[in-house]
Amino acid sequence: MSPRYVKRLLLFTLTAVLLGLSIQQGFGRAWQSQYTYALAPAAKAATDSAPKSAKPPASSQPDNVAPKPQALSKRITEYHINVSLRDDIRYLDGQQTVTWTNPGKKTVSELYFHLYPNAFMSDKTTFMKESGGKLRSDKATEASQGYMKLLTLETTEGESLLPRLHYVQPDDNNPNDFTLAKLKLPEPVAPGKSVTLEMGFEVKLPEVFARMGYSGNYVMAGQWFPKLAVYETAGTRGRTTEGWNTHQYHGNSEFYSDFGIYSVRIQVPESYTVAATGFQTKAVEKKGNRAFYQFYADDVHDFAWAASPDFIYYEDTLSGPGIPGVRIKLYLDPAHEELKDRYMHAAKSALSKYGQWYGEYPYSTLSVVVPPKGANGSGGMEYPTLVTAFAAETDNPGYSLERTVVHEVGHQYWYGMVASNEFEEAWLDEGFTSYAEDKVMASEYGIEANLPLEASYMTAPAPLKQPSWAYPSNNVYAENVYMRAKLVLIGIEKQVGEKMMQKIMRTYFQKYKFKHPTTTDFQRVVEQVTKQKWANYFDQYVYGNQMADVSVESITVHPVEQDGARMYESVVSLQRNGGYNGTVPVVLKFKDGTIVPKSWDPAEAQVQYKIVHSSPLEWVAVDPQHTNVLDNKHINDYMKADLSEVTRTRWSLGASNVIQGLLGLLGW
Fold this sequence. Notes:
Number of strands: 34
Radius of gyration: 28 Å
Mean pLDDT: 88
Strand content: 25-35%
Protein name: Peptidase M1 membrane alanine aminopeptidase domain-containing protein
Pfam families: Peptidase_M1
Region (Disordered): 48-70
Low-confidence stretches: 4-50, 644-668
Helix content: 10-25%
């Protein structure tokens, strides 16, 4: 999900900096092959053509596909779903046949289902209690109540299993939370064997809130069907014994599920256009006043769709290194039709760079949905092969348009294919995606991240490897799993260099795509690629809550007599106040213009420099070029020497940036 909710605090921080202040603190295994869109030989790559409007709209036609021979994932689950959006677009009526194959070595006697829409049943659910009815800048309305009701749950022989279904709350024992259900099976499932269930369900959609719902005549169906939890085998994510990974829907948490196959038939009012995960296998059927869409996807772990009668559709194709052929589809709100080239350029640029840097994008489609004004609750979100941009709230969205698309496309890698557990280790998705997003924005748009400012935003550093609901607030969650996590990755890059860091990221992706890795797996890759131990770094910044703040603690200057000449003895004390992150440059500036550089190894928490010089010391700056990206308190990086102890003040980040500029002029 896009970290747009940090903007207000970042703006506040920037204002404070400019003021000189500081902020601290049963269908069988159908369609077994993976498909790839068959491109014409003259398909254009990256950004060399404008998007083309298809006439008739391509969304009404099946996607042209060609088979690839092998499965990319273990395909633990298989869903065949029929869903109908009622004419009032407030309800979904669904039937699904789901098959689960036991991937472990033990017999399994129960299944667990996530019923995410039940998070909106009342203000007493775990999600609503933890979020307070807010997610980012999105607020629940009186119409934001929703639910998922299981109407039928049967074996393929017709035996009802509903009496065997019980809601469970393993995280907080909240009796009013119904987002996770346990089903005791009539017959256990042996290793390698499968069970197939048939389910009927009804979903009351909330007015758009927390990623899903309706707004006007627009619908975003995310987390809309009964979804199996992940059964983790021994060795997966460090497990010593196999078992289910089960969590409720929390205020901060996103999602975690297993890879599989989806065949989904979507029925909507006749005037509606549907965007969905995967590719369209049939032309749209029209019967009476209804339209029927058929989509298919494999080697994905979720399925989402959006629908509106107002979507303006454009498409283009992309191929190149790491991109064997992708059909990029835009579903634009009319208010942003004139921005179609920008959306397409952002999607192409992001996909091209990620494919080049990390590895192949194996899917045949990528859809970008632009919600209408008022539906931002569903904006800035990722699903397999489908992302949502910010809502069309303004005619001039600035670079937030590109940044959001670039970020969400990045999720196709770290959320979509690597498939981290977002319940328990959200930083492996959001932090990695934020890091990759910055790389694309710099490469394609010349927009460099203001890392010192972003570091100063870190007011409540917390361990990155912890459940999302363990963070005390959404702001603290966002600070850490988006911002601080990104800075931790950049901190590694600062030590090993960009080329080595790209090798680390690519190796991690290639080794763990479709495998649900954990933090330990990433640390192991860092150590294998660099041939160095990183336990100290990870203990401080990933498993711990450290930042790498360093400060100028004191300066004393007094005249001395030396060889009959008047000299000045300057004593400077520096202090490390947090974690250790490599050597730190120090600059001492004397009144005669002399600059004396030092290199301080903060493995020692304190250091004192004593220098005798013909001119008094004027000022001291620690890390004036902000190479220590994990230093979040730049206000204490600078001190003037000629002020009294009572009136001496440290300059803010803004002042230290001025010093950095002066040093640049001196060629330091």
